[in-house]
Design goal:
Organism: Olea europaea subsp. europaea
Protein name: Importin beta-like SAD2 homolog
GO cellular component, one term: nuclear envelope
Number of helices: 39
Helix content: 55-70%
Number of strands: 0
Strand content: under 5%
Mean pLDDT: 83
Radius of gyration: 35 Å
Distance between the termini: 104 Å
Largest sheet: none
GO molecular function, one term: nuclear export signal receptor activity
Oligomer: single chain
Length: about 800
Amino acid sequence: MKEKKFQIFDIPWIILVQKLDFLSERIVSLAFDVISRVLETGPGWRLVSSHFSTLLDSAIFPTLIMNEKDIAEWEEDAEEYMRKNLPSELEEFSGWREDLFTARKSSLNLLGIISISKGPPVLASSVSSKRKKGERNKRKDCSSIGELLVLPYLSKFPIPVNSSSKAINEYFGVLMAYSSLLDFLKEQKPGFIATLIRTRVLPLYKESLCQPYLIASANWVLGELSPCIPEEMNADIYASLLKVLTMPDTDKFSCFPVRTSSAGAIAKLVENDYMPPEWLPLLQMVVGRISDDEEDTSVYLQLLGTLVEIGSENVAPYIPDIVPLLVRAISRCIPPSPDPWPQMVERGFATLALVAQCWEDSAPEGSEENESYVAWVSRRTTIAKAFSDLLQRAWFKPFQSMDGEAALSKMSPSCVDDSSTLLGFIIQYIADSNIVLQLKISELLVAWSNLIADWNAWEEMEDLSIFKCIKEAVSLNNKFALKNFVVGQLPSPPAPPVPQRSIIEGIGLFVTEAFSQYPSAVWRASSCVHMLLHVTSYSLEQDVKKSLAFSFSKAAFSRFRETKSKPCSLWKPLLLGISSCYLHFPDGVEKILETLEHEGFTVWVSALAFILTDKFEHKMSTESEIKLTGMTLVKVIERLLTEGKQRSTSLHDCFTSLIEASIRAKEMQVEEEEEDEEDEGEDDNDEDSEDDDEEDSEDDEIEETEEEFLERCAKVATALENGTIVEEGDLEDQEQDIDLGTMEEVDLQSSVLSLIQRYHGILVQGQSIPPHLISSFISAFPECNMCFQQIRH
């Protein structure tokens, strides 16, 4: 009876897989999946194991042999061929896979399970723990089915010595089978794998035997086996892969799968810590293959990206040599119309963004006068020039016949994130106004700011490069007062003399929209508000500054209204963003808040006072935050007093919080002075003392209970779902120091003391301030003792 159950695999049609329609192949695939599941059980393994040889010879291997379907797909749809036969990611072999669908994938999954098998699975309920341990120890000494059956069977098929289709088709099946033995081979000694590769795979790369179908599969197998390849084999494997990386097409067939699988295998070798002996020839070869052919170019760009990411230290010295070549290749492929760019152009920009980051990471340590640093900056200028040429080609050339405003409105929105990375790279180290002109920085910033003004593809990682570029643009404008930064260019007659959108106006639209997006964007937008209002010089163009402040305050308060029901971390960036606007235009901002909500000004003031108290969980963490809040409270208190609101709750809350802010600012100042003194007296024992401190702090930590842990996780999950906190990976956005620009010169301590001295009769005697705050304040500022004397007694 048992024999009959498996006679199905002796039926001749299973050998002719190419003649199966989709439904029939799906049935065969499910049959393999059923056996895979059966093997996961002890009784099932005993039932099937005696038929392993029959399964392999009559069912599994025939599905692996190359057939007419494979050849047709190779020629007609190479992408589909590779998806089926050379997948980029192999998943774990298991009897419980439900996503295989093809007979070949299911048979490979089954072969992988069989190869690592050493006996029936041992279930916990079937034997005692002592017996289970004995079974496991016994199996360690046993040979697996892969060693006893699979490899000997595959060794029967020799490497083809001529163009015999039968031999080639069968050896294709052998290579497919090797790809399923990864788990089995990982358990073998390194010498075993080395022998297998040296005798059964590498000979295929000899010119006399070079068969594209087999080479593509061999490339793929080497890539999949790369994690367990012995180190001494890597050089030979790399040389073989490099040899076929640029294999040309022939009159008979395309070699695209060969080139693709070779690139993938080289990438996996590098990912597994193999560093090529010579980087420049490899990089030049890869860049030199980038052309109008979108399929090939995408493959080489992907490989180049991997080489840059993994081998950054080795690649960096050659970046100035390859960037001009890469830029020229990408420029040729940018369409002359404003249509969305081809995929290969987008991938090219993404690769250049990686290249730019790689060069930044290679900056030598030391002073700017260091020779190596000077040389690095000089070579960086070469890269920046190439990037500028590319952006000009992308943003200017398609619209040369159009007027400025019309051209800007038709620019392609493709690759804004990567373009922002390149633009930020260009302007970051500019130290000469002549370079600003040579690289057309103002023109590029005008084009870029118009792109981000209409940005609607908000994605956390993509937007980060835009925010970074904003920071670099503001910094550069402070150095050189860029043309069109604050006021746009007037159009040529006969157009009306209305200025085009300026750079900062485009940036302002982007920042305003950011307040309505994900939490990290709110933090970044708030940081930009401080920078744009405090750092940027507007000279006589105060209307532009006022317009920005009003837009920012409206957007920030609108978002605050969505979260005001419960204090959360987003309160801080939103309220501080409004604070910066209020410091410059108090009357206008107050009107906006009142327009958005009844008593909106009071709502904002109360919330601002609250975030300075101990009741607010997300306390002020930097001196600049406290200073900004303190300056705002001083201005608010003065306004309330001039309006005759001496007995308002807002006045009490603001003054109490101002006292707390002053105390905290003084404490930070003292701590900073003490740290400076400690730094001066540091010695070689610092590391030991730090270790001791860490041990002490570990001892002081109170272990969290399971209930507390679950409660904390639930709160975080709810907050993330509601969009009120940033995820853990983006916490650095919350720790940025606020750039106060010219307001850094304001002495908060003097402002507070002056306020108290002028209005102490109302502020001190007319308010019920907690005694401990008064005591702490006088301790920090003894000169105010007289002002608080009556209230203390």
